[in-house]
Amino acid sequence: MKTLYITTVLSLMLLSCDQQSITDASDYNSYLISTKTDQLDAVYKKNDFWNSRITTDSTQIVALAAAGNSYTNLFNRTGDINALKKAEKALKKAADKAAISKDSYLLALAQNYITQHQFKKAHQTLLNAQEIGGKRKATAMLLFDVSMELGLVEKAEQYLDQIENYGDFDYLIRLAKWSDHQGNLAATISYMERAKLYAEASKKQDLLIWTYTNLGDYYSHDGQLDRAYDYFLRTLALDDQNTYAKKRIAWITYSHEHNPSEAQRILASIKNQSPDLLLFRADLAESLSASAEAKQLRKEFVTTVDKPEYGSMYDAYLANLYAENFKDYDTALHYAEKDVAARPTAETYGLLAHIYHLKGDTKKALKIAEAHVKDKTEEPLAAYYLAQIYIASGNVDQAQSYKDDLLASSFELGPAMARNIKKLYL
Length: 426
Known about the structure:
TPR-like_helical_dom_sf, mainly alpha
């Protein structure tokens, strides 16, 4: 299991005690009430500019590509799925029409597909770019990313070897991801800290924000919540409307400090339309005994993502929601099977096995888990599913091997899951 999940007897004892406070509202209050809109206004203006350069039958490839990038930025800022789909349309048209630098447009289109969780489309698009043979390093980098999402771990390692350069930011961040996959979180953080030096030297805001939020995530996975919190604050200092940083600080107040009301206050300041925020808000409502509100928020999530524009982006969320909250296991299996087909990883197979177990088919759940999940991932949620299935199958000793790691993963999994884990081992 990951280094971060290894714990001592003392830390296990502390899980049942009051947690030490990490956050201080005075650190981030100004970001919650900020009325600054300069950065978002600039994105809208750029989007309008490039859109004005394009007509329905435009063959202006540069304008199409620029519009695609602008729509992507707009999606990142607002969560508006229509912006992401418009970006796809513009980038696809640019890639189709390009005779020169076609590979560059294919790479941009592949990145769009990755954002939409259309990993197989992204993979094929990248293979097309690879055939052209121009931007070999950039293509190999994205092929590494997609291969990891598709569970093609051996291919991912080959692509990583192709771009090896310990003095390169893009290589270091992927080496960090690879180390995380292997369960070596100490190495992951070390590589990310080295990458941070290059990001800070570049003074590029987008690069800094990406680096700080990822470092915040890795430190929180390692239980170093004070350092994680610091990086999320650094992110907000650069972008006071950054959705991800606010969401992660809210998670600290909820999962570590057991203060769902403060988490609600933080989330209320987020203007992004990302549907997953509805589920976070539902969990907070549930923890405050507002079950009717929680139910309504979950229904709103389903209504929101049940649109063609979202495609399969939220299949895993839907599978879990139908299984855990709605107890509709057939619908849950439908989404879980779609997710496995789209990205056959240990994590997606873990969810599929979990749903079969909840449905009562523990034999099939065990078969899937042992074939596709056991020893293939370090994620705590997958470990929880395995432990559940082993206990139901009568293999208590096997389930016991996950106990300490799961108890130590309470922050990452959240209060509700932490309670389930404790019940599992009563």
